[in-house]
Design a protein that fits this description.
Elements: H1 4-18, E1 23-28, E2 50-54, E3 57-62, E4 65-70, E5 76-81, E6 90-96, E7 100-105, E8 112-116, H2 140-146, H3 154-158, H4 169-179, H5 192-211, E9 252-256, E10 259-263
Antiparallel strand pairs: 1-6, 2-3, 3-4, 4-8, 5-7, 6-7, 9-10
Helix pairs in contact: 1-5, 2-5, 4-5
């Protein structure tokens, strides 16, 4: 599933071509996504005023409301010529005055399009989300306070969107490795110092991934059609059974919270006290 860096990469790719453009048409070939797609015809004739993001959602704002878009497991947005041939799984087009269109492709159809007339922050998908990991409201102290009395694994804790948004499986594994914290440790047992180190790792790793275009996954490519490149520098994710790049121990793999998890038994011994 595209994570925060992949969403940010897509946002940066489409933003220069959407802001200020007028939507001249909408085409919905298949509305059967995770939820029925909401792409109203009232968007036609409206100018795109802003392209933003919240967590893993893209926000395309017009005077009549905001499209809230989630890429799901395999969705992507491309800017193509409005006359370009339609490919398999091309479900939705936003046609633009420039002669281009923003085309949504999603083989698994697990993405979503919602339309909200009011402040998108009030929409039910966004209303209860935690702080952005690259924003001023995110800190180790925040993670520590949110973890009080939580006995779930620390990896599941930082992947909880009500605690902090946008930290998916890949970047959670990498941040915990960088902080030297074993992913199975109970959230309430990680120290304040440990969370300070973990928060710094989360922010640094996500910022670095955004710089290089996200992570190359089986399905993800950026808005320019090119894959991301951060996977080349992953330390643990997807490397179970291989050698740790730091200490040469064999990396261990397991399933935690129904997600694959990889860690180094040597580098990740602590709950953050050191």
């Amino acid at each position: 599933m595209p994570e925060l860096p992949e969403v940010e990469t897509t946002k940066r790719g489409i933003e220069p071509f959407l802001v200020g453009e007028t939507i001249t048409g909408v085409v919905v070939r298949n509305k059967n996504l995770r939820w029925p797609a909401q792409v109203p015809r009232s968007l036609v004739g409206q100018q795109v005023s802003h392209v933003g993001s919240r967590a893993k959602y893209l926000l395309i704002t017009t005077p009549v409301g905001t499209l809230i878009v989630h890429l799901g497991m395999s969705g992507s947005l491309r800017l193509v010529d409005a006359k370009a041939a339609v490919k398999t799984h091309d479900h939705i087009d936003l046609q633009l005055g420039s002669g281009q269109c923003l085309r949504y492709n999603d083989p698994r159809r697990f993405g979503s399009f919602h339309f909200h007339k009011a402040d998108p922050a009030e929409h039910w998908l966004l209303a209860d989300l935690g702080p952005e990991p690259l924003g001023n409201d995110f800190s180790g102290e925040h993670l520590f306070q949110q973890a009080r009395r939580r006995r779930i694994a620390v990896k599941n804790h930082i992947m909880d969107s009500k605690v902090v948004v946008g930290v998916g499986n890949i970047y959670a594994a990498e941040a915990l490795f960088g902080a030297g914290i074993r992913p199975t440790v109970q959230a309430c047992r990680v120290t304040r110092v440990g969370y300070e180190r973990l928060a710094a790792q989360i922010s640094q790793i996500l910022a670095r991934a955004i710089q290089v275009g996200g992570t190359t996954l089986r399905d993800f490519v950026g808005s320019d059609g090119q894959p991301g490149y951060f996977r080349q520098s992953l330390n643990v994710y997807g490397r179970a059974g291989q050698t740790c790049r730091i200490c040469s121990s064999q990396l261990k793999g397991m399933v935690l919270g129904q997600r694959s998890t990889v860690y180094c038994p040597t580098c990740q011994k602590t709950s953050g006290w050191r």
